[in-house]
């Protein structure tokens, strides 16, 4: 592994930790030349997932886009970045367990919404309002009544 500070090709692994789900390995490394430390993450490279949008167009699954949508919904709530990472991990893992690598965006939204609903109702309503395209106050009211 090349050092990101001095570009030297010889670095040493100082510490290795596996994630709870064993899907990611975190390695703490140290450069033998500049002695600076840095962290790398190792994941199994998977077959790309394809998202089928509402208009029928297909695009490659983008984990960052998924997290960005949740971040917007979770602003000024008690939902932390760790929770968002956990939901992203769970949703991606569940999608990889599907029979097909092509998944409708509606299904992904349902997976996220279900998890947000369990941890923060405000974040859930915000996410649902975009995901389900609430048009007027009545749409919000219907969803709020379901929560109550």
TrEMBL record:
InterPro entries: ATP-cone_dom, NrdR-like_N, RNR_NrdR-like
Keywords, ordered alphabetically: ATP-binding, DNA-binding, Metal-binding, Nucleotide-binding, Repressor, Transcription, Transcription regulation, Zinc, Zinc-finger
Positions of the ATP-cone domain: 49-139
Cofactor(s) the protein requires to work: Zn(2+)
Superkingdom to which the source organism belongs: Bacteria
Zinc finger map (unnamed): 3-34
One GO molecular-function entry: DNA binding
Signal peptide: none
Cofactor note: Binds 1 zinc ion.
Cited function: Negatively regulates transcription of bacterial ribonucleotide reductase nrd genes and operons by binding to NrdR-boxes.
HAMAP family: NrdR
Gene: nrdR
PROSITE patterns referenced in this protein's UniProt entry, alphabetically: ATP_CONE
Single biological process term from Gene Ontology: negative regulation of DNA-templated transcription
Family to which the UniProt record says this protein belongs: Belongs to the NrdR family.
Protein name according to UniProt: Transcriptional repressor NrdR
